[in-house]
Amino acid sequence: MTLTNPLPNQQDLNFECETGNYHTFCPISCVSWLYQKIEDSFFLVIGTKTCGYFLQNALGVMIFAEPRYAMAELEEEDISAQLNDYQELKRLCFQIKQDRNPSVIVWIGTCTTEIIKMDLEGMANRLEEEVGVPIVVARANGLDYAFTQGEDTVLAAMAHRCPSQTIKKKKEKSLVLFGSLPSPVTTQLTLELKKQGIEIAGWLPSQLYSELPVLDSDVYVCGVNPFLSRTATTLMRRRKCKLISAPFPIGPDGTRAWIEKICSVFEIEPKGLEEREFAIWDSVEDYVKLIKGKSVFFMGDNLLEISLARFLIKCGMVVYEIGIPYMDRRYQAAELELLKQVCKEKGVPFPRIVEKPDNYSQVQRIRELKPDLVITGMAHANPLEARGINTKWSVEFTFAQIHGFTNTKDILELVTRPLRRNAKLEDVGKSQHIKFAMD
Fold it and tell me: Domain Nitrogenase/oxidoreductase component: where (predicted)?
């Protein structure tokens, strides 16, 4: 297999689709960050022992006091419909209410519940009345969704529970942001918009279930993450909100474009954004020097790939390929436009975008292209490192604080770490070689 011209010049972005498999983490892992974000919630994952083992291994490495999630394990009798699922779930929900008294219980459906056609929504409606606690059903199974889309299904389900404006009166435009971010980051983005004179009416999800934002046709909504296309669709179609299509606030260029787009919808002239962006670039100049001219290859895992690639191209890197598990071109339209704009500004060819990439084919391309860095899922990191290829776990970008102006350094810290580490190892190797030669 030969790739004589890995980045051919082209007039538009080139989209390809390969195997149709999701080579990613399981989406039920979304409970690890959502239960922390929604402080009065409890997450109940309904699945088999395999799901339980996954949660133990994936989330067991995180040490939290009193985690608010549990596993309802389906036995063989449940799967063969010999037991009464309703009675068992009822018992569990009453136990959760007694022990933890949450404001909302979120049922996370897994692959098994899909395969055996469990009527989770039907049972939840009946149980909600008996238990006296709202029960939200989200199908975060790995058959249909990639890693971070677990959050997408939860937020889409929660959007149905947001209150509507009871008294219809003429009011000014209001803005609701959707996407789960750590509290310091939501505060930063809220303050950035406040500087421009825009007050945020609420976040989805909110820190408390009782504080879910009001949604109706007078509300403008804007996403902060590229993997929330189902939530965006639900907000538009079911709640009649108006979606602001903007690039995502990742990197100083994306953050500036995100704020500018929101300002344009609210008919506000943005102030000081250009200076703010330049100041951030100046503050990370040492990091940018390390990666300028180096190449990167995204294997695809968490759906942040387009935004990260756009930012790294802005930093001067060459992006050979953007692998991504799922691509909603409508929801990411503004981000894709910014990607094209950045490529033209830097005078570099558009990178190849591969949806649902075939990992075997990707490894062949990596061997041929020899990128300086591969951003990949954890399953492929060690095999690639063993072949002398620098890697970075994509999951680290999911859990790190990468949004907004002030977190630009955190993205570059993650990207440059393997390059800096291996450069140090080479220096150690050289010094050892000199020492042995002298001996």
Answer: 26-417
Same domain, 135 and 56: yes
- Who wins on pLDDT, 26 or 77? 26
- Residue 242 parent element (H or E): strand 242-243
pLDDT mean over 245-267? 97
111 is in an annotated binding site: yes
H or E segment to which residue 16 belongs: strand 14-17
Strand partners, 104: 41
Whole-structure pTM value: 0.91
26 is in an annotated binding site: yes
pLDDT digits (tens, 9 = 90+) for 207-253: 999 999 999 999 999 999 999 999 999 999 999 999 999 999 999 99
User: Is residue 263 annotated as involved in ligand binding?
Assistant: no
Which H/E stretch holds residue 71? strand 69-73
**182 and 253 inside one domain:** yes
Measure Cα distances from 330 to 247, 333, 336, 386 in Å.
12, 5, 10, 39
Inside any domain, residue 166:
no
- For residue 242, the enclosing domain spans 174-266
HSE toward the beta carbon, residue 111, CA cutoff 13 A: 12
Alpha-carbon distance values, 196 to 63, 250, 257, 415, 426 (Å): 39, 19, 13, 31, 48
32-66 pLDDT, tens digit per residue, is 899 989 999 999 999 989 998 888 887 765 555 46
Is residue 158 one of the residues assigned to a domain?
no
> Structurally, how many domains does the chain consist of?
3
The CATH number for 227's domain is 3.40.50.1980
167, part of any domain: no
Regarding whether 210 and 257 lie in a shared domain, the answer is: yes
